[in-house]
Amino acid sequence: MLRGCAGLLRSWALCGPKGGRSFSSEVLHVEHSLPNPSWNEDMRLLFDQFMKKSEDGSWKRLPSYKCNPPERIKDVKIFFPDAKLLKEQMSQAQQFPRSLGEGVGFEYAMFHNHVEDRTVCIFQGGPHLQGAPGFLHGGAIATMIDSTLGMCAILTGGIAMTANLNINFRRPIPLCSVVVINCQLDRVEGRKLFVSCNIRSMDEKTLYSEATSTFVKLDPKKKN
Q: Which of 35, 38, 29 is closest to 101 using CA atoms?
């Protein structure tokens, strides 16, 4: 597995994006939640299992791109009218979890169940996410936790932003391994959405992390 990561590093040196350059719409709109050559067997197996679950409509795969769709940018302008979104900066802006090259950073796919208010993320962390030698950085784990919790909150309660995030790290996650982030909406109190999740190994025997969070649903009539 680690030898495979080394190969990905070599390929990244050849095909990674150059710093400071703007990105074409063709690159930015490539779907990134689909299998690619960097996914290991465990990642592909889990993806296939959830795609099978999606056949009856109970689960839905969530598409993922490098950039925000135009409607998301419009939402920001509605809820934060004073925000200055410079055209030059936005032309180079990318979603943080999708900003690294294929296989060396965040490889993931999310699925959502509207009936159960649950979101699941299958995640393979690449070698550029290292913290302690051989393990994922806690910040990388927190990024995927926040991303999954946020997706669950938005899909169940509307446009919202993180107000609070508490994480308990139980065990370190090995680089290039595959874990499952299970997220669910616990309750809603007014504009507050309370969401929780855990990260487990593929066989569910190892608990890596647990998290609770509060998201606040944005209201254009109020000062957010």
A: 38
